[in-house]
From TrEMBL:
The keyword Kinase does not apply. GO terms for biological process: methylation. CDD domains: UPF0066. SUPFAM superfamilies: YaeB-like. The keyword S-adenosyl-L-methionine applies. Residues 6-130 form the TsaA-like domain. It comes from the Bacteria. This is tRNA-Thr(GGU) m(6)t(6)A37 methyltransferase TsaA.
Length: 158
């Protein structure tokens, strides 16, 4: 089996001024020409769940209301998974190329979560016009914009 080497390129920071990705100095040149993209795909590490117990969870009891009684972890957005990798599409508010800071509207990570990679969101590769979901979650928002004001707290069993 091949050995994978993954090195964080930065960290997520959230504070009273907003949510930011601080890119490590050696990766700042990789931000060149990112401006102009309204959104980015942020690949980040669920670092708070990077332990043997969390990585061994393969099924979970009904995390969402109305969902099946038991769900495989790959059918959830749970941070507990064999490889605690996360993906969030985020709106770019501002990029400071000199300081290596990207201000974003939202990310569902904790403060100081490691960022593994950033890719520009491009509709030709990232947007699915006719996607399908199970009935139990078909009432969920159809976009990140709608999700911002959705009552998510009513959807979870925890």
């Amino acid at each position: 089996m091949s050995k994978f080497m993954v090195h964080p390129i930065g960290k997520v920071h959230s504070n009273e001024n907003g949510t930011f990705i601080k890119v490590e100095e050696k990766y700042i040149p990789a931000l060149q020409a990112l401006e102009g993209f309204s959104h980015i795909n942020v690949i980040w590490w669920f670092s708070d769940f990077d332990d043997e117990q969390s990585r061994s969870v393969l099924q979970t009891e009904q995390p969402y209301k109305g969902a099946p009684d038991v769900m495989g972890i790959f059918a959830t957005r749970s941070p507990m998974r064999p490889n605690p990798i996360a993906l969030t599409t985020s709106e770019v508010i501002h990029i400071d190329n000199e300081k290596g800071i990207i201000q974003i509207a939202f990310i569902d990570s904790n403060d100081n979560s490691p960022v593994l990679d950033i890719k520009p969101y491009t509709p030709s590769l990232d947007r699915v016009e006719k996607s399908g979901v199970p009935t139990w979650c078909s009432h969920w928002p159809k976009s990140t914009e709608e999700a911002a004001s959705f009552a998510w707290e009513k959807e979870f069993n925890f």
